[in-house]
Amino acid sequence: MATVDSTVRAEAPVRGRGADTSAGLGPYRLGLRRLRRNKAALAFGALFLLIVVLCLCAPLYAEHVAHTSPNANHVTETVVVGGVRKDVVSPTGQPIGPTWQGRFLLGADQNGRDIAVRLLYGGRNSLEVGFLATLLTMVLATIVGIVAGYTRGFVDGVLARVLDLIWAFPVVLLGIALGTALALGGISIGPLHLEGNSLLVPAFIIGIVYIPYVAKPIRGQVLGLREQEFVDAARVGGAGPLRIMLSEILPNVASTIIVFVPLMIANAILLEAALSYLGAGVQPPNPSWGTMISDGIRLIPSAMHLTFVPGLMLVLAVLGINVFGDGVRDALDPRAKVRLEEHAEEASR
Amino acid sequence: MRVRMRGATAIAVALLLAAAGCGGGGSDNGSTSSSSSGGGQEGGSISVLMGTAPDYLDPQLGYTTQSAEPDWITYTPLVTYRHAGGTAGGELIPGLAEALPEVSRDGLTYRLRLRRGLTFSDGRPVKASDFAYTIMRAIRVNWGGKSFFTSYIDGAAAYDSGRADSISGIQTDDATGDITIRLTQPYGAFPNVIAFPSAGLVPRGTAMRNLSNDPPPGVGPYMYTQASANRGFTLQRNPRFARFGIPDIPTGHLDTIRVTIVSNTQSEAQRVLNNEADVFDAGDTLPPSLLPQIESQARDRFSREPIPSTYYFFLNVTKPPFNNAKARQAVNMAIDREAMVRLASGFLEPTCWFLPEGIVGHPGNDATCPYGLDRPDLAGAKRLVQESGTAGAAITVWGEERSPRREYVDYYTDLLNKLGYKAQERIIADEVYFPTIGNAKTDPQTGFADWIQDFPNPSDFYLLMDARAIQPTNNQNFSKVNDPHIQAELKRLNPVPATKLDSVGDQWSALDQYTARRAYVAVYGTETMPKFFSDRLDFDAAVFHPTYLNDWTSLQLK
Amino acid sequence: MTRFVVRRFISMVLVLFAISVLTFLIFQVIPNGDPAQRMAGRLSTPETVAAIRRTWGFDDPIWQQYLTTMKKIFTGEVISYTQQVNVLDQIWQDLPATLSLAIGAGIIWLFLGVVFGVLSALHAGHFTDRALTVAALVGVSTPVFLLGAVALYFLAFKVQLFPNGGYVPLSQDPIQWLYHMILPWLVLSVLFIGIYSRVLRSNMLDTMNEDFVRTARAKGISERRVLVRHVLRNSLIPIVSLWSLDFAAVIGGGAILTESVFNLQGVGQYAAESIRQLDVPPVMVVVMLGAFAVVILSAITDVIFALLDPRIRLAGS
Predict the structure, then answer these.
(1) Residues near A269 by Cβ (< 8 Å), separated by ≥ 6?
(2) Residues facing B350 on adjacent strands
(3) Exposure b/e, B456-483, CB count within 10 A at least 16 = b
(4) Which of the residues A255, B443, C18, C53 could staple to C36 if both were Cys, CB 3.0 to 4.6 A apart?
(5) Do the beta carbons of residue A259 and residue A28 sit within 8 Å?
(6) A279-338 residue pLDDT tens
(7) Quick check: A298 and B287 CB within 8 A?
(8) Which of A110, A294, A303 sits opposite B343 (nearest CB)?
């Protein structure tokens, strides 16, 4: 989608490594201090962490509390709730609501699977996709952004156009198209082969799709940086372009990168949910928050827990990391001259 | 008939307008409801809601139930079906022909004579040559089932490929009304073929292109007075039809039937529940979240009607693990059909036979399912899997996306894992599903499959068990069954003319029981469709036809 | 200047070309995506399939198929594989729903985004600001289809305030049209309001510290005038350019999720269904339309900015 290209906005100079900072405290220590004073950001960051930990404990919960696994069906079984024996799934297909007991704590879905167990395993999948995608995005976008911004000329031209290309392609449509293509056949690039229902597939798609969101601002920032004196100094000193990119440019965009990470994680999780809703994300029967929400929408009037439970979890997780990410940005860059691509979030419209 | 239920599937964010004023609130249809004593009133108009648009309203193109419902009663073919429910609805009766066809001893020649004095809805007289033209039109506009014509009628293939200007195998005499059809090979189900709505007569000279927005005239109790392919259409009683006095084809009670395409089955159902519309199209899926309400508030105007269909999991017998008979038997033993019914929100009737109820040859109540019907034996099945030596095999289970088919496969995959296999799902889009699993390159081990009758003839179902039908692309015999006994029986039974099916019913039944014992597939159910009306209509008098669903000629206001 | 414009134009054409090729190739690469098979139906014979392949040119080399498809698109003759209807006709039918959604939501989110942003900036650090920021963050963290589903549940089911999705054409019944569009507008806007209000807030806070604002204050101009004349006007520029791009994106099928949830049968929904059905022609048309809208607006924006800011022109060369 769209936002203001950073090259278009006026840039304030960012302190180079060679520049002078307040005695004793580097920008990161300063940022950390500011972050620590931001109670809201810390609280929400802790919320996100809590959710991550809970999801990591999925196997423990499944085995010891719910006594089932995420994909195990219990369609014709019964469970005793408050002394009454009830069907997990009624003869006309209505699943049971939350029992607030060990088994089916948060209810069952139409296949009689335990929602709480799927919620945690689904969280694992959603978070895993989110983290992997973000990793892919950040690594590639940093490389592309720095190379494009520094080398300029032809290479930059090509890279910028490729970024434009990915950018102009409606994100969700691209995601669906790739997701459908890959779900059918998996990816085969040289020696690398991924089966259609591997989690790496949606991670790969989401990772690629978000590259322009990060690469463009980085490129913009690098365009400004390379005109700085310390870069000239390094060049005069005999350093080659690669060396300069690594030792002079990279540290200066580091704070931008750090600020982007939580934002991208949030967006990746949201896009995964969107793709799963449209059937192109995590493949059945594996749960993810997006697939659970999508499956539950059919039955909202009679079984709203199917949608609300994963939905709430998703919102809390994303909110947690968004607020934390805001805090990180405020801490590292309070003047916030570099415009962040918050519009990446529009992808999950 | 292929029931292609597209439309508001993945989307339905299901919400209801509360049924606060349910019961009352009948909508204004512009008809005077003077009640008559006894069996309902004549005349009046109703509204029908369809959640999926008919693929085509053009009679020679339509190939889904949504198009068959109106076309059946607006374009009568030479032969048609009895307007009754259940097995009786599968009986062939003369339509525009005077009598059922005379079939020659070798099964290659069919003779019929057109009734005298017939006219189309626009007044033009019907001639025998109109039949030949109708078949040519169906081929020329590329009807989805045209292979039924081109594969069997002599000269039809040549016409299709452009090598001939007409079909040499159809001879007609307009003066006498005689029609003679020559086949390339004997085909017992041929009478069913000329009973398709696409063989419903249209006047010679009708343009050979999609006329869905302006359907041609036909002969039937009703006629189109307005049509807009994606939005809706209107049928009106055809005044000329009653004069023909064709026995066994009702002339209809209602004056006007207004069909509207709605994109959301939830609101579609809600409107019928609130009596704001009269018929919920039987070809649509009732949103499961609305069922509790419907069953409590509208019990006297809602029922589930079976249609001859088979829902099963195919088991590819040419590769592991299902080339092993014990493995296949284990699956049949372990399937919990009650679970499948629940996944279908109750719209499935459990069965183990490949030939469904309503088709001649369905084994019925006297026969016992070889691997059980309603008491799944998971433990026994696991033992069988161990014995077979196939335990631990990797299996890819294929399935369609839409509900409840995906849920069926979710359940099935989990079942295979419980049996000791390592099963994984592959869910793909509905549109590409059958071409994908029918492709030799995919060569799937197992997965979802269904078959809904093209016509009420067992040979239609056994196409899927016929070794000759196996082909590298667009294969329908997914289990790749190649059984000499089945081939021998089919060779004997297929040529029996559809008009004489009852005489070989026992033999089809024996064949079907043999097939079940061989466990080439795992059958679990027959689909049921919702018969759901407003309270203005006489529910019990309305006929639910096994092939054409709601018989609109039987609908009557109370 | 002209060189800049010409260069942007050329790169725009190249991008559109690349997008069309990319879209086309994705579908070629999909296994078992043979459209002839699907069109022929379950009971087809190999001859039927072969005939279809001939008619549609599926046996031609890929580049030729691409050219044929592009030609069909530009002459308006493009037919979809699944329904075999004219794609452009179908899009034309679906466009009013998408336009209604985009325009209505666009106005709402621009207006409310600005209002909330201004309020936030004015009361920076105080309760109003915090409350609005929290609201914005929640809005930005909620997937739109979830919000739509929840909204429908509470407002169309529990309390029948709104209809259960669907679209009523404006020409058919203006009141019903409005009634059906309110929820989709609000749901789609929530996300953008959250984003825009925060961006505007940041911009305004930054601008308020700029020298020229301090100068204006020093000159004795009233705070209110300072705000509107200087701060707001300056901060709005990026918002407006953002808006035009987002708006274009929504029209180009970007609001798929909102359209799906409310079943508006718009262009986005059509595109999504076509993709899942591996129906190439509609997807290509919609994607290109959308990309075209975005790219053109992006180019125009860049040109305008270049006109306004000489530094950009030079930096971009």
Answers:
(1) A126, A127, A129, A130, A289, A314, A317, A318, A321
(2) B525
(3) bbbbbbbbbbbeebbeebbbbbbbbbbb
(4) C53
(5) no
(6) 778 888 889 999 999 888 878 888 889 999 999 999 999 999 999 988 888 887 655 443
(7) yes
(8) A110
> What pairing do the DSSP bridges indicate for beta strands B279-280 and B45-50?
parallel
Return all residues near A39 (Cβ < 8 A) that are at least 6 apart: none
Structure tokens at C145: 């289809």
Could B14 and C263 be called an inter-chain contact, meaning their C-beta atoms sit closer than 8 Å? no
Query: How confident is the prediction for chain A on average, in pLDDT?
Result: 80
Distance from CA of A167 to the nearest CA of B (A): 27
CB-CB under 8 Å, A303 with B428: no
Q: What pairing do the DSSP bridges indicate for beta strands B394-400 and B422-428?
A: parallel
Which tokens sit at B488?
């021998």
Chain C's closest residue to B271, CA to CA, is C164
**In Å, how far is B342's CA from the nearest CA of chain A?**
5
The distance of A298 to chain B (nearest Cα, Å) reads: 6
Amino acid at A298: R
pTM of the model: 0.85
Q: How far is C88 from chain B (nearest CA, A)?
A: 15
The complex scores an ipTM of 0.82
Out of B12, B431, B473, name the one closest to residue C49 (CB).
B473
Chain C interface residues (partner B, CB cutoff 8 A): 31-34, 37-38, 40-49, 51, 82-83, 93, 148-149, 152-153, 156-157, 160, 163-166, 260-263, 265, 269, 276-279
Helix H or strand E encompassing A218: helix A211-225
Distances (CA, A) of B319 to B323, B330, B446: 5, 16, 10
Q: Is C141 on the interface with A (CB under 8 A)?
A: yes
The CA distance from A184 to B145, in Å, is: 28
Non-local CB neighbours of B452 within 8 Å, separated by 6+ positions: B1, B2, B3, B307, B308, B309, B527
Residues 193-252 of B with CB under 8 A from C: 230
- pLDDT at position A240 is 81
B333-345 pLDDT, tens per residue?
A: 999 999 999 999 9
Residue B507: its H or E element: helix B505-518
| B13 contacts in chain A (CB < 8 Å) | 297, 300
Residue B102, min C-alpha distance to chain A (Å): 48
Phi, psi of A16 (to 5 degrees): -85, 165
Calculate what percentage of chain A has a pLDDT beyond 90. 36
Q: How confident is the model at residue C19 (pLDDT cuts 50, 70, 90)?
A: confident
């029922």: which residue's tokens? B303
pLDDT digits (tens, 9 = 90+) for B24-36: 333 333 333 344 4
- Residue C43 pLDDT > 60, yes or no? yes
B426: contact with A, CB 8 A cutoff: yes
Interval C219-241: pLDDT, tens: 777 776 777 667 777 777 777 77
pLDDT top residue among A173 and B56: B56
Smallest Cβ–Cβ distance between C157 and the set B15, B148, B436 belongs to B15
Question: Per mean pLDDT, which of A104-118, C147-161, C298-312 is the most reliable?
Answer: A104-118
Contact: B263, C265; criterion CB under 8 Å = yes
Give the count of Cβ contacts less than 8 A between chain A and B. Answer: 111
Contact B14 A92 (CB under 8 A): no
Q: Which residues of A309-341 are buried (b: 16+ CB within 10 A; e: fewer)?
A: bbbebbbbbbbbbbbbbbbbbbbbbeebbbbbb
